[in-house]
Design a protein that fits this description.
CATH superfamily of one domain in chain A: Winged helix-like DNA-binding domain superfamily/Winged helix DNA-binding domain
Number of helices of chain A: 6
Structural class of chain A: mainly alpha
Oligomer: homodimer
Largest sheet of chain A: 2 strands, antiparallel
Shape of chain A: globular
CATH architecture of one domain in chain A: Orthogonal Bundle
Order of helices and strands of chain A: HHHHEEHH
Strand content of chain A: 5-15%
Strand order of the largest sheet of chain A: 1-2
Radius of gyration of chain A: 19 Å
Helix content of chain A: 55-70%
Number of strands of chain A: 2
Chain lengths: 162, 162
DNA sequence: TATTGTTATACTCTATAACTATA
DNA sequence: TATAGTTATAGAGTATAACAATA
């Protein structure tokens, strides 16, 4: 791992935070590497996977809702959904109440693909986290939950408002 | 935040791990959003920032060393360094011992830019982590350190060997 | 007028392949 | 023959702008 040289003059209590960010970046890269073969095998991309996950979590979500949640533009999600629909993993149908909107849902096959990928991820991560104290993992969840809340508060859900 | 619906039939101890991944994804997106304006202001991209950070951490590193560390291809790093050199943030000079290799170093201006960006990141994250128990943050660092080690072990440092 | 979804288009990032020069 | 760096090129991924249908 890259050794964190002090990037700040002061070496205050924020050092732990900087270290955490560096670790975060490494875990990110390593996770993407691990996940890549699985996604390739299923024939979908990272963006498509997160689209599937969001459609699955938010039942009956629209394109723009998914876009807001993932923090990407509507055309990006639209393209992802196009491909997922072609692959038979996601269904579109016009909303009855607001005929501009499109309601998204997973097909049975889409649900199976999502489950397989999550299962693969969980296996890899469980392996990587094996033997770690439950209390430490729980503490990480607490930290990330809190950080997520505050970041998404201040972030005001771009990228529309650039 | 996206509610994690049970993606696995079994709801075993791996549930915490799945939750952690979902949180991880959210923190990632939120962090990138936070960081984007700062990087734009400094006139560099995310990839260029990590290149600067790696050059700074690994004193006298070569292009290929940086590429291996970041898990990206040599041409990508080469391009990043090109732009950073044009911007006057990084210097190249041929190694004396192996005249194929290029040794990289930050210019004084490059060091200032790195410090400013880290300072900004640390500020944002410290704000986001404010009030959290020190012990929880420390536990997160332990978890991420362990996970990083095991993931980079099994990952065998692609993307050359695809 | 504002909003949803979509299409058209351009730009950035990244990778593979091919080339040069050293070893 | 292998390695370090570079150049050329192509493919993903994403965003902005413009458009159609609906509210």
């Amino acid at each position: 791992m890259v050794v964190v040289t002090p990037p700040l003059e002061r070496r205050s209590e924020s050092n732990d935070v900087v270290r955490l960010i560096d670790l975060f970046h490494e875990v990110l890269r390593a996770s993407l590497r691990e996940l890549h073969p699985t996604l390739t095998k299923e024939g979908i991309t990272m963006g498509q996977f997160w689209a599937i996950h969001t459609v699955s979590s938010l039942q009956g979500a629209s394109v723009s809702t998914v876009a807001r949640y993932l923090g990407v533009s509507a055309p990006t999600v639209c393209g992802n959904i196009d491909q997922l629909e072609d692959a038979g993993l996601v269904r579109r149908h016009r909303s009855e109440r607001d005929r501009r909107a499109v309601e998204l849902s997973l097909t049975p096959r889409g649900r199976k693909v999502e489950a397989r990928i999550w299962s693969e991820i969980a296996g890899v991560m469980a392996e990587a986290a094996r033997g770690l104290p439950e209390t430490d993992v729980a503490a990480s969840v607490r930290v990330f939950t809190a950080v997520t809340h505050r970041l998404s508060r201040s972030g005001t859900l771009r990228p529309e408002g650039t």
